[in-house]
Every structure is written in structure tokens, then in C-alpha cells.
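Side project, low priority. Logging it here so it doesn't get lost.
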Amino acid sequence: MSLSARMLPAIVILLATWVLMWLAQSIPTLCALANPCPAPDVRVAPAWLFGGLMIVPTLGLILAARARQSWGWVRTLSYIVLVGLAVVGLGAVLFSGGFTVPLVL
């Protein structure tokens, strides 16, 4: 397997999550009647935090792909951390601004 083919999935996960976090910034926030509306940029901080943290496991995957030895445990752990940060980060970005799923009855 070539070097770029081993690095491609990690880079695709990172870039796709960054794009989704960027697109989530345009979702309108919902205000509860009892609470004041959140600030318009309330989703920026979680996007920066989780987007930045995702660079660490991506770098681990790139370094493991470049290594001559088999570092299977590093790749497995890095993918678990990367996907976990992507899921938790997207959830934090979406729900930090008061995003809710409307219930139609």
C-alpha cells in the first residue's frame, strides 16, 4: 500500500469534519423562552477547540504511515481518537447554539 493511500483516510476525516463544523456555523440558533438567546458566535469556540485537537491524531496517523515499522496500535488508537473527536466535536458545535430537532406532532 502506498504512503498516500495510508494517509488519505485520516486527512479526509479531518477535512470533512472541518467542513461540517464550518457549515454548522450557519444553522440558526433557537432561543428558549426562559433563557436569553446565545451569542451569534457561540459555535466558534467548540469548532476551534475540537478542530485543533483533531490535528494531533491526524499527525499521529501521518507519522505512523511514514514509519517503516508496523505501528498498528498507534494507527488503531489514533483512528479511535480522531473519530471520537469528530463525533463529539460535531455534537458540541451543533448543540452549543441551542440547535434542537423540532418535534412535529
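Brief comment: The radius of gyration is 17 Å.
Revisit when time allows.
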